[in-house]
């Protein structure tokens, strides 16, 4: 059988690049829009975001079950891209609309839009991740697709970081609400284009009625399979731990530049440079994974992350150049490890089907989102409580507190990353074992059809 075409690899790169344009709006810009444009009190904004993020975590497995048990007319997974992508845009437009209504109505519609936008983002993400093992069972091709996803994410982050604020200001012409709304329209067109293109290319792989006649697993069977899938549980725990480490660094980043370096504006240089370190790590990852194994690649990536943060602790001090250089080393390591994650999840989906005889691929692949969301929650909380623990107050000039910020910025992400590597050491699936269980699954299917 011929390998995947370069068009599919590029489309898988582009869908990640594209969807990030709206997920970024809901992560990085929504709070500022709500407080400074919609003029909603800060405490209310915090409540809106907290409730939204809790729902965002809870609905991931539920959406996975819905997608898994569905059998829609354009294919099991790609159908949801056609349905959900426009709805992501619609609710993002509503989320960045400042209507002239009472405060209670404004809070109600903005809260609803925020929650529903991420519900449909999760439908898109569950489906696009489930397409990865649908496109191919070859482990090297899966690794390459996973790398393309990581490259799309890092390039998108760098580009969006450079253009979003200037674009909002340009399109708004002094009216921030108008600028946000028009920016979402442009970004929404990119999102729909990227996801619809992927769905179109998947038509020969995710065929309508392919699962017709097959009994869908019950909710109980899905829960049992996921709960007894040891490789999946180890993978998720390690990935949550690594993402917690990266989000601790994110949580301290602005404080480091404002109080340790003394120049907050340098963060505009820091972000694109360090993101490019992640892009290079993503690019290198596929070659190491193909030659050796994903597990080796992941642990090597964590080792580079640890090294980068250790160098920050030992040598960076107040030197912004050294800090950026060493964090770039760490982000190279994160990119190396992160690029393997979708391929890991694909293998654990095969393992679950091999063990139980039933496929819950959509639920399994949908859980790829779960560590990201938990990592954001835990990493952000650790950074915030860390600042509270050392007695931080805005505008501080206390050298002890500033030194503690410098120390925690490096040490906490470094220590947490060690745990991620230790957990991954126990991951049991190798290339050879996955090939064997894939062959056994194919044999079972052939026997059932004969």
Written overview of the protein:
The protein has 2 domains: 7-207, Growth Hormone, Chain: A (Up-down Bundle); 221-440, MFS general substrate transporter like domains (Growth Hormone, Chain: A). It has helices at residues 6-37, 42-69, 78-95, 103-135, 139-172, 176-201, 219-227, 230-261, 267-291, 294-316, 320-338, 341-356, 361-366, 369-389, 399-425, 431-449. The chain is mainly alpha-helical and 450 residues long.
Summarize the structure.
The chain has 450 residues and is an all-alpha fold.
What is the CATH H-level superfamily of the largest domain? MFS general substrate transporter like domains
Kindly estimate the percentage of residues that lie in beta strands according to DSSP. under 5%
N-to-C order of helices and strands: HHHHHHHHHHHHHHHH
Determine Rg (CA atoms, Å). 22 Å
Give the overall shape: globular
Averaged pLDDT: 88
What's the number of extended β-strand segments? 0
Structural class, by secondary structure, is mainly alpha
Largest sheet: none
In terms of per-residue confidence, which ranges show pLDDT below 50 for 5 or more consecutive residues? none
At CATH's second level, what is the architecture of the largest domain?
Up-down Bundle
Q: Tell me the distance between the termini.
A: 22 Å
Q: What is the CATH class of the largest domain?
A: Mainly Alpha
**How many discrete domains?**
2
Q: What do we call the CATH topology of the largest domain?
A: Growth Hormone, Chain: A
Q: Report the helical percentage.
A: over 70%
Number of alpha- plus pi-helical segments = 16
């Amino acid at each position: 059988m011929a390998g995947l075409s370069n068009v599919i690899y590029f489309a898988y790169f582009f869908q990640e690049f594209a969807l990030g344009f709206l997920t970024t709006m809901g992560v990085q810009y929504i709070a500022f829009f709500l407080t400074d444009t919609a003029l909603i009190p800060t405490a209310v904004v915090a409540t809106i975001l907290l409730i939204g993020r809790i729902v965002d975590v809870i609905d991931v497995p539920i959406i996975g079950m819905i997608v898994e048990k569905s059998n829609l007319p354009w294919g099991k997974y790609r159908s949801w891209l056609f349905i959900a992508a426009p709805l992501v845009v619609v609710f993002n437009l509503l989320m960045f609309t400042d209507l002239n209504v009472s405060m209670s109505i404004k809070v109600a519609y903005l809260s609803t839009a925020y929650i529903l936008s991420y519900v449909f983002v999760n439908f898109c993400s569950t489906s696009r991740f489930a397409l990865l093992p649908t496109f191919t069972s070859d482990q090297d091709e899966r690794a390459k697709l996973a790398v393309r996803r990581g490259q799309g994410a890092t390039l998108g982050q760098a580009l969006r970081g450079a253009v979003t604020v200037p674009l909002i200001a340009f399109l708004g012409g002094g009216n921030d609400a108008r600028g946000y709304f028009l920016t979402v329209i442009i970004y929404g067109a990119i999102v729909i284009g990227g996801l619809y293109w992927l769905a179109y290319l998947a038509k020969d792989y995710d065929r309508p009625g392919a699962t017709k006649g097959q009994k869908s697993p019950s909710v109980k069977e899905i829960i049992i399979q996921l709960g007894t899938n040891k490789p999946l549980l180890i993978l998720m725990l390690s990935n949550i731990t690594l993402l917690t480490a990266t989000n601790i660094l994110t949580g301290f980043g602005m404080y480091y530049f404002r109080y340790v370096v003394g120049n907050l504006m340098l963060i505009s240089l820091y972000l694109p440079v360090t993101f490019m370190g992640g892009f290079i790590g993503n690019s290198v990852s596929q070659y190491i994974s193909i030659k050796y194994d994903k597990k080796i690649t992941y642990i090597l990536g964590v080792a580079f992350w640890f090294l980068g943060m250790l160098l920050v602790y030992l040598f960076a001090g107040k030197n912004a150049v050294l800090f950026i250089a060493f964090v770039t080393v760490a982000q190279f390591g994160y990119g190396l490890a992160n690029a393997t994650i979708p391929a890991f999840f694909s293998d654990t989906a095969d393992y679950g089907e091999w063990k139980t005889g039933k496929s819950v691929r959509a639920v399994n692949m949908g859980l790829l989102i779960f560590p990201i969301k938990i990592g954001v929650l835990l990493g952000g909380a650790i950074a915030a409580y860390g600042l509270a623990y050392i007695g931080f107050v805005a505008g501080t000039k206390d050298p002890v507190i500033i030194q503690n910020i410098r120390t925690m910025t490096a040490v906490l992400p470094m220590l947490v990353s060690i745990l991620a590597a230790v957990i991954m050491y126990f991951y049991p699936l190798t290339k050879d074992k996955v090939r064997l269980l894939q062959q056994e699954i194919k044999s079972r299917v052939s026997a059932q059809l004969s």
